[in-house]
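Hi! If you just cloned this repository, the fastest way to understand the data is to look at a raw example. We've pasted two of them here, unedited. The first protein comes first, obviously.
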Amino acid sequence: MNIDLNRVKTVVVKIGTSLLTGPTGFDGRVLEEIVKELCRLKRERNLNLLVVSSGAIGCGMTALGLTERPKRLPLKQATAAVGQANLMHYYETLFRTYGEGLRSAQVLLSASDLDNRDTYLNIRNTLHTLFALSSVIPIVNENDSVAIEELKFGDNDTLAARVAAKIGADLLIILSNVDGLYDCDPRRNSKARLITEVDAITPELEALAGDTAEQTSVGGMVTKLVAARIASAAQVRTVIANGRRPNILHDTLAGQGVGTTFYSSRESLSQRKRWIAFGRAARGVISVDDGARNALIKQGKSLLAAGITGVEGRFRMGDAVRVADARNRDIARGLVNYSSEEIERIKGCKSAQIAALLGRKDFDEVIHRNNMVVL
């Protein structure tokens, strides 16, 4: 199925770490070709283009002479601080060279920036204002130098999907060093078949995704499927493609590119629901049994204590949490009516028992369906 170019106005392009590193560290040759193509797209189509870029820690590793990705948070943040400056200098130089008047703008985000709805909307307005300038392409990255581990996006695939959802993008293109999702690992099986179209991300599909072994990378195909699920829920079509292929952005926008296309959900989310699902950092995880999973996904019900099997993290009433099924797959996000300690005490119990267990019952539901988004 082709993408209707006339209906595509806003595109988020995520550039993966694997495209920005070589055997000796940062390698900007692929990035140079992608920036050239971004500049051509901007001039030819006047699209709203936003880049979510990996590479800060990789650049920092090269500058500091490190051969392995830092594991301790302080060194990781220091490396990112060094690398971010180098990475943005490289982007600005490329846009000045090939952009014919185009400029880049740096936007650093942390997950906590999206917790507050006012801040969330302010970021959205800032990005739309940059689009309105017509000559600016925003470069977004996680603010790794200050973000604490518990409140990180986790990987730039997730960041790209949440940004795409937040700004109401039409298309998310995730560029990596592979052509897309295969039915088995193409590095180990020469007969691996590329899956070109995905209508729904099923457990069977998730089982096909592997992880990454790159020293400079965080995400693998698993995180790309998570990103596609987030984008799909926000009605953003997602394409995973190989950034090393010439003209991959033009071909993708014409519906002719090699890659895996994930079609968007038919259900439209309100801005409030988008904020719940993608704008707030999840402070914990609530695990549910299969009965609760079916009630949430198939029947659109609220989450009751009876279906809860476990609680991870510490959170308060009103915080955002992830809801995971028995196989530890995220199925929803929502705002809780009870704290993690209270949910630990009432999990598996009927709503009628809550008052006796807690000394009060403010709500029948742990998460009301109006405060929840099924992914």
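Ok, and the second one:
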Amino acid sequence: MQPILNLNTSEIATWLTEHGQPKYRAKQIERWIYQRRVQSFEEMTDLPQALRSELAAHFELWTTKIIHDPEATDGTQKLLLQLHDGQSIECVLIKEGARRTVCMSTQVGCGMGCVFCASGLDGVARNLTTGEMFEQLLCLQHKLAEDERLTHVVVMGMGEPLANLNQLLPVLNRVSSPEGFGISARRITVSTVGLPKAIHRLADLQVPYHLAISLHAPNDELRDELVKMNQRTGMDAILDAADHFFEVTGRRVTFEYVLLAGKNDRPEHAQELAKRLRGKNILVNLIPYNPVAGLPYQTPRVDDTERFQNVLTQYGVQVQVRKRKGDRIDAACGQLRRNREQQIVTLSKPKRV
């Protein structure tokens, strides 16, 4: 059976026409899926019974299975989803005040080579389909109370979003449409490790979403070490692409900077970064590292984080520090998936005799 979430409105309407049904039923079906939180076609009660049965016979509404769903004391919820081919991905629901933010994945694993990130330790297996990205949003939406709704989406989960842009854009279009999740485009952020050509493409498409670029270093020498993809791009090309994005869209770019204790969090790193970014209409988002088992990197001291922030501020660079959320449930990108797989491998080892 075909996953219905891989189809757009036009494709569903075409199928309906071919099966003797009016096209307007397509929007009814989508309304049930994206807004009314149904779990099955049978629950779509304003559709004829015969059509509901036919939909169930031809399409799958769900192709993923929740295999782990821990919740942190701060309300952060993380899902480990098993895909149809046995691969697994993560998505996160972050609750803060009235905000309900989804962090979604775009690939199984990641091929960008960030040495401190759990997502990329085993490389990238494949791109996610449009439907698999929708299912993350829907699974987390079902975790909300009836009077709650998703308010923000950040594409900062497993994978490099701009390496799967053709599948991602239809998802974001649906997320921001009144017929979909109805989330304002101003509340959607796409994160990238920095693929200059793809950033130019995103800008030239005039997309209304925010862009966040994961920088993590003030120079190419250190970034080549921390983010292997940088060896193929270089920081100058990334910063030029960011300038182009701002010029075309008018949307300020955020630079993400994960602080690794003793590695990229020294005052000299802050000064060098400030000199490269000063005068630009940007925001730096400092992220104290969330440790990953088996990796040598550690969370910086609070004093070091504050000093780094102060140096940027002194140079006139706008900066904020991201609050840590969900660290007790492996909420950093890729942690839950990797830890779960390691547990499975350990448990499956034959006993010694």
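That's it. A detail worth noticing about the second one: Confidence is low (pLDDT under 50) at residues 342-353.
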